[in-house]
Amino acid sequence: MPLSPEALTLAPILVIVVVLWITEALPLAVTALLGAVACVVAGVAPAKEVFRPFADPLIFLFIGSFLIAEGVRLHRLDRRLAYGVLSVPWIGERPARILGAVAVVSVLISAFISNTVTAAMMMAIVTGILGAVEAGAREHGKPPAPTFATSLFLCVALAASIGGLATPIGTPTNLIGLAFIRDQVGVQVSFLGWCAIGIPLVAILATLAVAVLTRMFPAGVEQLEGVGSYVAAERRRLGPWTVGQKSVAAAFALTVALWMLPGVLLLLLGASHPLCVWMGKRLPEGVVALIGAILLFLLPGDLDEGGRRRRALVWREARIDWDIVLLYGGGMALGELCFSTGLAGAIGQSITGWIPAGDWSGPVLVAVAAVVAVVTSEFTSNTASANMVVPVVIALARATGSDPLWAALAATFASSLGFMMPVSTPCNAIVYGSGRVPLRAMMASGAIIDVVGVITVTAAMLLASRF
């Protein structure tokens, strides 16, 4: 297949960007900007076309989600949830149940808040729990095995990454894959549609992760003295709900409800109903995220030091992860140029030439997409992995005459499943930095969860494709 001059120019730029992403010689966002600038300077496409993805509606879904997450963090709603779950009487002081509770809390928080922020917050909570356990052991003489700390910290890393798969906004990787699917496959996956696949997938993966960690790193005791009293004391320190917490909870609840409402109406009324059409046009997910974020600047917060009522969120506290925003924009720009110049199609056709004869449609392609995404995410960031793998998978599916949707979704989900190395995800790096997780333990458990993840994602895509 002859390549256009633009595709020939884009190819070396793409190779350089991929190498820089993998080696992290430059910050990922800087590399994404470098690729976009190089495309304009080299004449691949005009600046207006190259930089269009930086104003994609999903960019504003990122921004709104970041602001809402910051409101939740500032008003400590995440800690209120965490200690609320850990104080459930059924959990008690049993090691396996505490491990399961930590996984549940991490999953629930990371479904809506950055995986990295979730891991950092849960690390502080888990460190406090371990301190209480060790103090209780000194008093009662029943210390847990050192491997329990390993299992607890690894549980934070695994569950925080897995939980991000539950909703489209759980991790930027999801939105990157969804944007490619929307633009190149022509399929708009709704918030509820994603959750219908993501939530069962997360439930299965999190349960298996807890089972693997319990088996590989046992606590060695039946009961962990001191956990109950520590959690109860921390809940008392949080005190009653504040005005700011109530405001953030209301804004968050409204946002989630509006995200899910179009999917519910679609199921009840059908796609052609005027209300469904109106919701789709007037309240896309990015606009809903901004509505929720703007509400935080309008609703009342707590009293300031001077006794004046402030807003739930003020602009100087509004932290936005611009690294992710720029990485998304640059990655999407390169991905769209790969398709518009014909480079992605050529790559897909060339890969099919290397593939042995046989049936590469359906299940095989989905499995290959999941495997490639997982392997890639072990050596580079999840977002970079999605930017690299999803466009190639779509082109490969077209070259083999297969439906690209399920292979692209498999690659999107699997891009978040790199668990073996500290550099695979920020969650792994945070946990490894505690000094309580040996590298061998992370690699051994991560390898098992990677394999389980590939199998589970492949099965989930094949099952979903039938419905």
Task: Explain what the structure shows.
A hairpin with a 5-residue loop joins β1 and β2 (309-311). The protein has a domain at 76-234 and 342-465. It has a two-stranded antiparallel ribbon with strand order 1-2. The protein has 467 residues and is mainly α. α7 (115-140) crosses α11. It has 21 helices and two strands. The protein has helices at residues 5-23, 28-42, 47-50, 57-74, 77-86, 95-110, 115-140, 146-163, 172-185, 191-216, 227-238, 243-269, 274-282, 285-298, 322-340, 343-354, 363-379, 382-399, 404-414, 426-432, 439-465; strands at residues 300-303, 309-311. The mean pLDDT is 84.
Level of helix content? over 70%
Q: Roughly what fraction of the amino acids lie in strands?
A: under 5%
Low-confidence regions: none
Number of strands: 2
Number of helices: 21
Gross morphology: globular
Mean pLDDT: 84
Structural class: mainly alpha
Q: Give a quick account of the main beta sheet: strands, pairing sense, barrel closure.
A: 2 strands, antiparallel
Evaluate the radius of gyration.
23 Å
Describe the protein's topology.
Blueprint: H1 5-23, H2 28-42, H3 47-50, H4 57-74, H5 77-86, H6 95-110, H7 115-140, H8 146-163, H9 172-185, H10 191-216, H11 227-238, H12 243-269, H13 274-282, H14 285-298, E1 300-303, E2 309-311, H15 322-340, H16 343-354, H17 363-379, H18 382-399, H19 404-414, H20 426-432, H21 439-465
Antiparallel strand pairs: 1-2
